[in-house]
Amino acid sequence: MGTGFFTSVDDVSAKLAGAGYLASTAVATTVFLADRLGKPLLVEGPAGVGKTELAKAVAQVSGSRLVRLQCYEGIDEARALYEWNHAKQLLRITAGRDETWEQARTDIFGEEFLLRRPLLTAISSDEPTVLLIDETDKADMEVEGLLLEVLGDFQVTVPELGTITATRAPFAVLTSNATRELSEALRRRCLFLHIDFPDEDLEREIVRLKVPGIDAALADSVVRVIAALRAMDLRKLPSVAETIDWARTLLALGAATLDERVVRESLGVVLKHQDDIAKAGAGLQLEQVLDAS
Amino acid sequence: MTGGVPERLAAFVKALRAQGIPAGPAETVDAAAALEVLGLDDRALVREGLAAALVRRGGQRAVFDAAFDLYFPAGIGAPERAREDQPMTLEELREELAAALADGDRQALSQLAGLAVDMLGQYGSASGPGGGFSAHQTLERLQPQTLIARVLAAVRGGGARGEFTDRLDRDEIRRRVEGFRGQVRTEARRRAAEVRGRERVAKHAIAPAADRVDFLIASRNQLAELRRTIQPLSRKLATRLAARRRRRTRGQVDLRRTLRRSLSTGGVPLRPAYRHRRPGRPEIVLLCDLSGSVAGFANFTMLLVQALRDQFSKIRVFAFVDSADEVTHLVTTGAADPEHLGARMLSEAALVRWDGHSDYGGSLRQFTENWLDAVGPRTSVLILGDARTNGGDPNLDAVRAIKARARHVYWLNPERRSLWSTGDSAALEYADVVEMHECRTVHQLGTLVTRLLPV
User: Measured in Å, how far apart are chain A's first and last C-alpha atoms?
Assistant: First the structure.
């Protein structure tokens, strides 16, 4: 049971590129498999390589609705799956004073009093849906148990209503920063995709696409400096998001080429720790200028 | 070449399992389904498709790729170009390699890697029992690192262009050379597998994932790679510790706040409020043997504990070889340069008095005499070392004294359990006094840290 958004791997690449997402072979292949096999996609990777963007792009190109569940510490069933609308139920009970208990009981546990949260919304939707479960690792272990039923069989069991099975399986994307090891059971139900920093050619294209108006030579220099930074032993390696930010900054500063002064002044856009900046300065030999001025 | 795709896939999965990637039957079925969808036309797609189904976490990809290149090789036998008539000389090969490195042409580089292994890597008779292909021999004869200057000149086309990015050229070329060495290793494994059988090569020649490398036999590169995992690992461990802390306080209902909250739902307590307990953060004292081969393990653990510092109210680190000294100030981050940490400790702290052989008895006595007040009832003490006393007195009384004052004392031993108390090791004697755990890999260390450290 697949979602059937795409016809081939090349089709995935072309469509995603049309939506402004340049996919590597790994990304395109895995998205295609997830689409065909109807399995959820677990995406891991450093912050800022476009894990969430991928889900958004898939939703955009397939014309589906994006349902997003943002996980955080302490998220529970009531926030992720469904909740009974207690206030409304109380109102209903007060309104129907003459009813027998049997009537009231069957009535207040109907669809009308059910508050749908993202997971249930995605499952019960008739239109094509992309379900994005963002930062799954931030949620507690218990929520993972909840996800097993939803992602394994695309169904949800509400004790009072019975089991709701998806008429159309959503295209499910789970993202994780690996702050916590996700359970083996959850991993088994998903296709795994590790998005790493893109290679230089791809990153150059990304910069050109995201920062129109940037000079080709400048984009090339930016990507090369970023690659050099990633080879250093830094606390937080610059990600694609930082590359784009930096390219935008340079464009705004009106820099036509990179030189020591521009790099030194704008390095804070790329690196977020003071000791990283110091280390990168030494590695890129920026201090030569410091001495001169 | 025996068997069809299913057999090949099953053998591949078996090899992955032997390398610590736990792919079960369900994963194998997924992999087969992926192959059915993708077809077998494009090797890159097959690789990514199988990876999506079989790999389960980030660190396993390198192992997967190495195994994939063995079980789904790009070709059989000698590469296309080696079968041509006129053989190349070594100098011609180096010439072409330099050109390919200058262009950064991956296609050409991988072809040249195949050619190089074919020309230079063979030893013994090609198909005989003692023969094979060696990446080491290939690289030794080819010496790609000596090409860097030549490639640099080619890239710059004469003089430097005076641009900012010029300074990056050298490092970039070095990375390309490193990539080429990797391709040579892959190619040599592939050729060796044809001679000696895939299973044997897969078992011995694939480097294990970083977190399964034995601390005591890790090479310098592997240790450097391990250090890069400290930040993510510490984040992961911190989350686990925090989760344990939360679980401990779960389940106690705070009656007053529950009643207060219930007012919004008509006096019915629908959402109970739970009691929070303010966590007391524990103190940690590390006592590390920094001699010789154990130092890699001790340094790693020190940095890891330091990276976890916001989980503890206080961390003090002591190191010893044949004399103990406090090194807390050297481990503080920001100032810490992990690569040279060990060397700095040895030069700046008084750790070696005599010959640089570890003296557990003396060092423990020194610790109990000078710094025993660092250990209190809220302190967990971790002792890191192989307990090899070089025949000296193990000084069990000192360990007992530490244990009497501390909340917990744990000993992490980087040696395999079967080696404890062999030779000059006093491991089992110490193990009688304090809890001792085998801690040979990052994987084990991670598990121990989450389990042992108090919350």
Answer: 66
